[in-house]
Amino acid sequence: MRNTPFIVATLCGFVACTTQGDDAVERRKPTNRPDAATQAIDASTPSATDAGSSGSIPGGTVSCYREGDPDAFCTLPTHCCFTNYSAQHNGACATSSCTWGTIECDGPEDCAEGQSCCSRAIVDSAGSTVGYRMSCTSTSCGGPPLGDELCHPDGAACRNGGTCVTAYGNQTDFPRSLYVCR
Description:
Elements: H1 4-18, H2 22-28, E1 61-63, E2 73-75, E3 79-82, E4 91-94, E5 101-103, E6 116-123, E7 129-137, E8 147-149, E9 164-166, E10 179-181
Parallel strand pairs: 5-7
Antiparallel strand pairs: 1-2, 3-4, 3-5, 6-7, 6-8, 9-10
């Protein structure tokens, strides 16, 4: 029993040494950034930058890359939802909202006359990209990294005057089966 005060004092000293004040705990907390796995992006509701978008032409097809099936596609109006959980950005055909990326077009052939197939980054209030939406629009696509014009190497010329190149290595947030104008 004589060692009890010594043990209690030692344990209290150890706890005091490893316990930090509230300020230190607050500094270690992660910032409140949305988690793409839990935040649904409503791909069916056009953003303000997509004003004038009339959507894709039904019956066309869009690329929906999957690592085991790189030539996979979806028939519009079913779109492709792709993930950001791997470098491959695997996709799946869907009719509901997508969590990270939505492909409603993959080139100008999926759009009405005079429209472009544009990718627009979806950005939260903190300025972090939380997803992408590829859709037809009559407005400018903007420029990378927040906006990209989608194309096909053997298709129509890029409206922005650029060259149609693979997204693989040029826009790493996209599935590698897509092409962008640069």
